[in-house]
Amino acid sequence: MNSRLPLIAGNWKMFKTGPEAAAAARELAREVAGAQAVEVMIAPPFTALEAVHAALQGSAIALGAQNTHWEDSGAFTGEIAPPMLKAAGCRFVIIGHSERRQLFGEDDRGVNRKVHAVRRHGMVPVVCVGETEAQRDAGQTFSVLDKQLRLGLENIALGNPLDVVVAYEPVWAIGTGKTASDHQAQEVHDRIRRLLAELLGADLAAGVRILYGGSVKPGNVAGLMAMPDIDGALVGGASLDPQTFARIMRFRS
Ligand code: PEP
């Protein structure tokens, strides 16, 4: 057991209107009281951020966004800037989710610009990395992750290990029902922590939270969380139903 406070994060993707998201957040705020020694974050769509922020007042659940632009303002139609997320109450911002990389052409350079922008505004980037099934089959998992992390975290200076979160999300496990086995995931998390030690120094790397994501459910979360380098979960589909997500955040019971 390590001393890192687990983070259970829900990525609501493009689901829930403002009122629907606020109702789910209120239900989760009631449930979180039963979850011990765990930090919980939910990332609703942009249009629901303010309603969810209001619904979470007085609760320990943190608010996150699913993406950001890297500039503070400008002529970027359809984009959202970090100061807007900060003003809406966000503490975390998910960066480089595989859906953004695969469907919207995001690359490691863009991820790096966003990570810097989020840090500049005092929020915590949740930097997503992960290999595709073809890359895993070709034995490229570690080289893919190396590149994603080296470029994604380039020139990031951290004062505190809690200022960044890494989420390992094998692309083949997202929304597919296939989960990496506990040991498969641990092997990669161990590798990521070694790489973080090289990039950030061993002391900081020891405190950075590395989440696993990919079809996490109430039935598999405890096994994953028992691994020494798995410090939490980034949950997509199973975070949409508050009662299911609550069972995940109570993974110890
Ligand atoms: C995700 O979207 O980050 C994710 C892990 O999705 P799911 O839990 O549905 O696989």
Task: Tell me what the structure shows.
The protein contains 11 helices and 8 strands. The protein has 253 residues and is α/β, with parallel strands linked by helices. It has a single domain, classed as TIM Barrel, CATH 3.20.20. Bound molecules: phosphoenolpyruvate. Phosphoenolpyruvate (PEP) binds next to strand 8.
Search tags:
alpha/beta; binds phosphoenolpyruvate; globular; single chain; TIM Barrel; 253 residues; 8-stranded parallel beta barrel
**Residue share in β-strands:** 5-15%
> How many domains make up the coordinates?
1
- Identify the overall geometry: globular
The residue-averaged pLDDT reads 96
Taking the alpha carbons of the first and last residues, their distance comes to 16 Å
Order of strands across the biggest sheet? 1-2-3-4-5-6-7-8
In short:
This protein is α/β, with parallel strands linked by helices and 253 residues long. The protein has a single domain (7-243), classed as Aldolase class I (TIM Barrel).
